[in-house]
Structure formats: C-alpha cells, structure tokens
Amino acid sequence: MHCPFCRHPDSRVVDSRTSDDGSSIRRRRQ
C-alpha cells in the first residue's frame, strides 16, 4: 500500500515517517 503522505511503498516506513506528523499514525495498523 502506498502512503498518500510520504508516498512510500512500504507501510512500515510510512508508520515511522508519518509517526512524527501524527497524521497517518492510525493507518500504521496496515
């Protein structure tokens, strides 16, 4: 799944990157 925020192909990377923003923290479950 590609994150609409950081556009990373890996949801795990998304969790770390958006974790600081707090916008996609809820999506980290995926």
Radius of gyration: 7 Å
Helix-strand sequence: H
Distance between the termini: 8 Å
- Global geometry: globular
The number of helical runs is 1
Low-pLDDT regions: none
Instruction: Estimate the helix proportion, in percent.
Output: 25-40%
Mean pLDDT: 56
* Strand runs, count: 0
Characterize the biggest β-sheet.
none
SSE-based structural type: mainly alpha
Number of domains: 1
Strand content: under 5%
The gist of it:
The chain has one helix at residues 11-21. It is an all-alpha fold. The model has no long low-confidence stretch (mean pLDDT 56).
Q: What does this protein structure show overall?
A:
- InterPro entries: NrdR-like_N, RNR_NrdR-like.
- It comes from Streptomyces sp. SID12501.
- Residues 1-30 form the Transcriptional repressor NrdR-like N-terminal domain.
- Pfam families: Zn_ribbon_NrdR (PF22811).
- One of its GO terms (molecular function) is zinc ion binding.
- With 30 residues, the chain is mainly alpha-helical.
- It has one domain.
- It is 37% helix and 0% strand.
- The chain is built from one helix and no strands.
- It has one helix at 11-21.
- The longest helix is centred in the middle third of the chain and has 11 residues, at 11-21.
- 10% of the residues are buried.
- The model has no long low-confidence stretch (mean pLDDT 56).
